[in-house]
Amino acid sequence: MIVTLPPYLVLDDFARHHGWDGVCAYLDMARRGLDIELELARELLPRPIGQVKQLGSMMVCDVDDDSICKLRVEYEHLRRLGRVRCEWRDGNDVARVMHGRVRGGGGSRRGGGGGDDDGGDGEFRAKNFGAGIWFPDDARIDSTAYARALLNAAANIGRRRGVGGGGEDGEKFDDDDHHDDDDAPAAVTIVENCSPMTSVATIAAGGGFDDDIDCNLINRRHDSTHHAEVRLANGRILQARHVIVATGGMHVDEHLAGLLTPRYSYLVALPHRPITPRFDHGCRYGCDGNDVTGNDDGGKSMMDMRGDSPNFFTLGFSHDWCVESNFVRISGEDHYSGLKRPRSALRCHNLATWGYDKYPYLDANVPYLQRHGVYSETSDYLPLVGTPYSSSRVCYMVGCNAWGQASLSALASSAPALLGYRDFHPDEIDFIRLCSIGRFVGRYVSESARRKDASSRHRRTMDVDSSPSWSLGTVRPEATRSRL
């Protein structure tokens, strides 16, 4: 699911931390990330029609007046800012988008009973949601196939650009199994199912750890003798001119300790016979063929021909779900137990119970699929992007916060500028300012605990009285070539 809203309970909370300019910057960044993903997916995926669905999304709220009022405030903020297309929908509209028009049979099938929840007017009424905000441009992508397609495309480009001696960016491998058919190493090599990473660090000239901890992110010193080193659990060492760390959920990095924490997410897939407007005349739930949107367009603006639905998520982001390939797929994040053992059975049971309540015609006696995964979360729910100190060769691009797919996609396109290979485009400056890792790094950062003879050195401490030199508030156009 690709959602273009900040992962906050309400926009007012986000604005308190980052200002309304920050809200606008995030919305613009997420929109750009969505466009990038859709363009790449439609170009690279083997079956883009089935693997890319731009059916929109809807944020919904409970039926009580307080929840509807809060959602209305969100809608007015979005309309005032004018950064995203959105429309207000009442509770009946939400019900039609979720369920179509259903005659009878609206009672829960958990006990095999029937019943009639439709109030006698021949249309199923969702009793759970009072209103919604419709975002017609949002989409979802088969993320597993998308990631694979990106890796394959990178490998193909790397094979075409392979050079003798070493990779274009100075990669060095301990093994001899990274060669193309012509015995020339590729510029890009994919290593899958490798030993876990244990550390990543910047190595200064002479082989020691980098001691330069001046954190000026504008006028950066580019020392060509520095390089990055990745150590794997099996003892293998990978070296490169730069390393981009693009996952944080399964590895606790020393520079990110306290800034980035792992969290569990849970997913269930409840079997669902699609209630498809117009197209599925044998629908056992009584689909009468009318449009789920209330418009005479066959419902194709809301549901596709196979009954796949838009994305839905609650105000406050407690649940997100959709109907996909005859399953109601529901996911939720556990923001409190990510550092403990996963409680998959309990959490997934709770998600399933919630789903049966929202879709009461589903048969709860049928087994459902469940799983859990790990994502990474930051304290202010924004990605961490950039390098932790000036001469670092390790660039971080982490912190999906469960909703950051679009924002991280936009930031990934700025990687060449972050590493100093091109100037920043004008529209990138606000994005990087908002998400720079520098917002958590003072003028000086404490030296790594791994440094030799640390006890005999004069340790520099954070100067809390001086302005942080990483601040991008005074970025000049001519200064934007340096890495942020």
Automatic annotation (TrEMBL):
* Chain intervals with Gly residues compositional bias: 103-114
Report the InterPro entries cross-referenced here.
FAD/NAD-bd_sf
Q: Where is the composition biased (Acidic residues)?
A: 171-180
Secretion signal, residue range per the UniProt entry: none
Q: Which residues lie within the region annotated Disordered? A: 99-122, 161-180, 455-484
What is this protein identified as?
FAD dependent oxidoreductase domain-containing protein
Q: Which organism is it from?
A: Cyclostephanos tholiformis
